[in-house]
Design a protein that fits this description.
Elements (H helix, E strand, L loop, with lengths): L2 H13 L22 H15 L16 H11 L2 H16 L8
Helix pairs in contact: 1-3
Length: 105
Amino acid sequence: MSLRHEITHHIVATYLPDTPAADLEPSLDLFDTGVVNSLQLLELIGWLREHYRLPVEDLDLSLQSFRSVAAIQDFIETNTPTSATSATSATSAADAAGTTGTTGG
């Protein structure tokens, strides 16, 4: 699963449970449309911190970085430690190939 799809699926599952993920446009303003409010933004930042190992305490956080799925993706790609990005990419590649959790032999 791509980074954009992971973010989209999390936002839909958490904040728009009755909406198909395909209906959430990457450029949709999550704040202006009421998808995410200020409290939910804190929850979303916490999820991003845990899921992508973002050192949010050390980053300059701006609402613009979380305004849309595309903005969140850019923020993650810019601020994620290389090892965490590689691990997420490897997991995504394994998921796509259907090999997650399998062993050789």
